[in-house]
Request: fold
Amino acid sequence: MAVTSDLQTSSELKGLALPALHGPGGLFESKGEADVAFGDLLIALFTPIGGRFMARSFGGTLHDLLFETLPGEFSLVDAAIKDTARKNLPHVTVTRTRIREAATGKGIEIEIFFRVNSSREVERNQTVLIPKTFVSPQAAGGV
Reply:
């Protein structure tokens, strides 16, 4: 008798994508691999290094940079995003970023272009809006 498993293979990468958003399939609907990978990236980016009790090396420096005075070019933010992905997420490659003041003037927008390494999918991009309350005045272009 053959035994089949309902477990996913590592190449499928489907499951809960964070942050959980209420969609047509409910709050915890299953997401595709690119959405799951982007959720993983957000968690890694906004987890301070040392912030996980059993995984002290997990995380990145982006959280710290957003509260510091940054030069207007955002090269440190770009480097922090790529470095965090390289160190913590072997299944994701960040190819480039575009960081600018939000059109509304209420924060900064970070557009991340990435690929899921286990997929033949083309480059994807997602944008994260960081509200002004989380960014130092000079980090948001002197706003």
